[in-house]
Amino acid sequence: MMSDKKRIAIITGASSGFGRLFAVELEKNLDLEEIWLIARRSEKLEETASMLERVKGTIIIADLSTPEGIDIITKKVEFEKPSVRVLINNAGFGRSEEFIKGDEKYYSEMIDVNIKAPVLLTKRLLKYMSEGSKILNVASSAAFAPLPYFAVYAASKAFLLSFSYALDQEFKDKDISVTCVCPGPARTEFFKTKQKSVGGLKIEDPQKIVEKALKDMKNKKNISIYGYQANLLRMISKFLPRKCLAWTAGKIKMPK
Ligand SMILES: NC(=O)c1ccc[n+]([C@@H]2O[C@H](COP(=O)([O-])OP(=O)(O)OC[C@H]3O[C@@H](n4cnc5c(N)ncnc54)[C@H](OP(=O)(O)O)[C@@H]3O)[C@@H](O)[C@H]2O)c1
């Protein structure tokens, strides 16, 4: 029997980059009534909402580095009691720098947005998910290896990768799947550089990454990797010891 609950998707970091593309692609691919678009910049979220043709884009302004930001989302879910068909934990940030020079507050916020927000949102929204609901966590190919000069970011994405595999197993009996997206460099606000490559890696088209991610999510794959570069990185990371991976990665020049 069809439930009379509103069928929604929730996307964090929907004001730009992958998050915006996920919103546009989701409405084409799934039978949804609303997509909840979450980020801090309201005008950018309005732009994303205006790109949706069939599905209502509901804007939620929330700073996910704060407990209040996460509460805003959970309170709205608790009030409306929708059926959460898809949760995309996509918001995240990082930059390349020497750890010793990095700002403590910046790292703390990065951990809150990249790790704490996906954990708490998944935990709190799970009771609004049911058979066939999907969780998509946006990690990075940085999850595959320890990255000097990107240490906290890479570790935060390794967390998300491990977390995704574990939860996918735990939720098998509920038929809720968890897919982890591990993109290499892609042209979004994350990499503002005009260069064609970073650290020897070609900067990919984010549209292709998003299309593949949604296909892999639909097919309940554990991991979604687009392109030969990211696939190669994953393969190498399976064979080389972490020390060796870290040494090699430390030689790569990343844009500031
Ligand atoms: N582009 C790449 O090369 C690449 C590669 C691998 C993985 N990724 C991952 O992909 C995800 C999306 O990044 P992107 O490439 O699309 O970059 P982006 O265009 O910079 O998007 C980042 C999104 O995260 C949101 N965000 C950041 N801090 C937030 C906070 N405190 N509270 C709420 N929202 C916050 C931003 O929204 P507001 O600023 O409006 O709040 C924005 O919508 C990230 O998790 C990133 O780590 C990116």
What does this structure look like?
With 256 residues, this protein is an alpha/beta fold. The chain has one domain (7-250): Rossmann fold (3-Layer(aba) Sandwich). It is 44% helix and 16% strand. It has eight helices and nine strands. The strands form two sheets. It has a seven-stranded parallel β-sheet, with helices on both faces. The chain has a two-stranded antiparallel ribbon with strand order 7-8.
CATH-derived topology: Rossmann fold
Give the termini separation.
53 Å
CATH architecture: 3-Layer(aba) Sandwich
The total domain count is 1
Task: Work out the number of β strands.
Answer: 9
Fourth-tier CATH superfamily name = NAD(P)-binding Rossmann-like Domain
Helix content: 40-55%
CATH class: Alpha Beta
Largest sheet: 7 strands, parallel
Which ranges are low-confidence, i.e. pLDDT below 50, for 5 or more consecutive residues? none
Structural class: alpha/beta
- Main sheet strand line-up: 3-2-1-4-5-6-9
Share of β-strand residues: 15-25%
Radius of gyration: 18 Å
Hetero groups bound?
NADP nicotinamide-adenine-dinucleotide phosphate
Summarize the structure.
By secondary structure, the protein is α/β, with parallel strands linked by helices. Helices cover 44% and strands 16% of the residues. It binds NADP nicotinamide-adenine-dinucleotide phosphate.
Summary keywords:
binds NADP nicotinamide-adenine-dinucleotide phosphate; 9 strands; two-stranded antiparallel ribbon; 256 residues; 16% strand; Rossmann fold; 8 helices
